[in-house]
Amino acid sequence: MELEMYQVDAFAEDVFSGNPAAVVPLYEWLSEDLLQHIAMENNLSETAFFVRKGEYFELRWFTPEAEVDLCGHATLASAHVLYEYLDYTDPVVVFETKSGRLFVDRENGLYSMDFPAWTYNEIQVTERVATALGARPAELYMGQRDMMAVFDTEEDIRALTPDSRLVSKLDGMCLIATAPGLDYDCVSRVFVPEMNIPEDPVTGSAQTILVPYWANRLNKTQISSYQASARGGLLLCEHLGDRVKIAGKAVSYMTGTIHL
Q1: How confident is the model at residue 35, as a pLDDT?
Q2: 57 and 148 housed in the same domain
Q3: Is residue 41 located within the same domain as residue 64?
């Protein structure tokens, strides 16, 4: 068996920035065990697989460790592959996923994703969280999937040196650290050691909690969100009540063939 595979840098204007994702189009679903082994072999934060079902595509995301229920950068990368390599011409791509239907459109090279806005509740800042991050946040929130620590300054975010072993023991899948930005509405970093991702370069799904929070705090709907990882990436977002629009660019890095 041979499968085509594409590697795309999402939320990036140039290669070697943004967040790399592998995308594997399928004609029919393979076993979950085989999908997981492919993702493990790729050893990227996410490998996306999709199968066309009439007018929409079933989409699944796998880290090297497990399948996840929502991933932004691999969704954007999948839309990029459809438009750039698979002759897709409809104005909107519809993906059916574990998080419901997701929509992606492209205009002037900018991909815009329509994701759910996740709710969150403030919780107490504990010594456990402060020790794991190596610094005490001003506020702490628990969302539907992820924990979010809010700091006072961008410098606080860039200076963080979290202990991955301790972070992996906290509640939630991702630990998001965020603060007001100097050049953007907010900056963030995202740590996912539980999924063997010490730090995710750029995290689209994190905007589902970041954007509602900052839209409410700044009293605005348009949010420029910069993820201050070593690779870095800009996400242009809009809060739409129970939905969040997340836009960014994508760059092709590699095409190849998987031999099984």
Answers
A1: 98
A2: no
A3: yes
Residues 6 or more apart in contact with residue 1 via CB below 8 angstroms: 259, 260
Amino acid at 1: M
> Which amino acid would we find at residue 14?
D
Same domain, yes or no: 234 and 134: yes
Residues with Cβ within 8 Å of 2's Cβ and at least 6 positions away in sequence, in order, are: 257, 258, 259, 260
CATH number at residue 219: 3.10.310.10
Specify whether 29 is located in the same domain as 124.
Answer: no
Catalytic residue annotation: 46
Tell me if residue 35 falls in helix, strand or coil.
helix
3-state secondary structure string, 142-161?
A: EECCCEEEECCCHHHHHCCC
Q: Which residues form the domain of 226?
A: 120-241
CA distance 129 to 152: 16
State the 10-residue block means of pLDDT for the chain, 260 residues long.
97 94 98 98 96 97 94 96 96 95 92 94 97 98 96 98 96 96 98 91 94 98 97 95 95 97
Q: How many domains does the chain have?
A: 2
Inter-residue contact 23 to 8 (CB < 8 Å) = yes
Q: What pTM does this model have?
A: 0.87
